[in-house]
Amino acid sequence: MSALQTAGLTIWQSRLQQLWEAFGRSMNVGVRHYSGAVTEHFYDNAGFGPTCQALCLLGNTAEAARYGQLILANIGFSNDYRLQNPDRWWEALSPMIHSLWGGLVASSALFAYEHLGDPAYLEAAYRATMAVFNCYDWNVRSTPRRLSPGEAASTYSVAAPNLNMPDLSRNRFGQSVFVGASDPLFAALFADVSGDDWDMGEELAAYLLGFGTTAYLYRDSSGRLKCVNGFITEEQDGLSITSYAAYPSRYMLLEDNLEFRAPEGTLQPTIRLIHGQFTV
Question: Is CB count within 10 Å lower at the N or C end of the chain?
Answer without folding.
Answer: C
